Amino acid sequence: MSVSQETDPIAAFVRRHQTGLWRFLRVLGCRGQQAEAIAQDALVLALQRRVDGAGDADAAAFLRQTCKHLWLREQRDDRRRAERHAAAAERSWQRDLAGDDGAGWLAALDRCLAELPERSRRALDATYRDGLGRAELGAELGIGEHGVRTLLQRLRAALRECIERRRQS
Fold first, then answer.
1. Residue 25 in contact with residue 39, Cβ under 8 Å?
2. DSSP code of 133?
3. Tens of pLDDT along the chain (169 residues)?
4. Do residues 57 and 71 make contact, with C-beta atoms less than 8 angstroms apart?
């Protein structure tokens, strides 16, 4: 026999605290989906630590504190990720573009694009200039969404190789 939601203590605990946690996280500055994810993680942690047996005020305090710490960890991780990305961009710039502020790279790209077949250029233009999605581009080219994905991956790889060859010569 299944336990109904009305008598399920876990479901009742989640119902009592979920909305308040979401609102608290929004006050912290979380986006909607981020707030939902963090609130869910905090509720799981509370249930694992059996906080659902404590009084509502104590449980709410534990949940808010847990949400705050989970949010702060995300902020720290996002900052670290941004710092790593910035460091990689700086290394890439120094290695490939600093000598001429990217003019040589762009010239190589222009020459490589000019060598592409018309269909390939159209696929790139539709994706990056016109903002067409895979489904729309697939319909235009007569291929499926996975075919569009594969086509774009191959085109990016071919352009990367072409640019590297031109930059080395």
1. yes
2. -
3. 444 445 788 898 889 888 888 989 888 888 889 999 999 999 999 999 988 777 888 888 889 999 999 999 988 888 888 888 888 888 888 887 777 888 888 899 999 999 999 999 999 999 988 888 899 999 998 999 999 999 999 999 999 999 999 988 7
4. no
The single residue listed with the structure tokens 């059996």 is: 50
Domain boundaries, the chain: 9-86, 102-168
Is the Cα torsion angle 101, 105, 109, 115 positive or negative in sign? positive
Could you identify the residue written with the tokens 């534990």? 62
The string over 141-163, giving b where at least 16 C-beta atoms fall within 10 Å of a residue's C-beta and e elsewhere, is eebeeeebeebbeebeeebeebb
Closest CA to 19 of 3, 41, 36, 42: 36
**Which run of H or of E encompasses 130?**
none
Chain-centroid distance of CA 25 in Å reads: 20
Q: What is the CATH number of domain 102-168?
A: 1.10.10.10
**Rounded to whole angstroms, how far apart are CA atoms 156 and 137?**
16
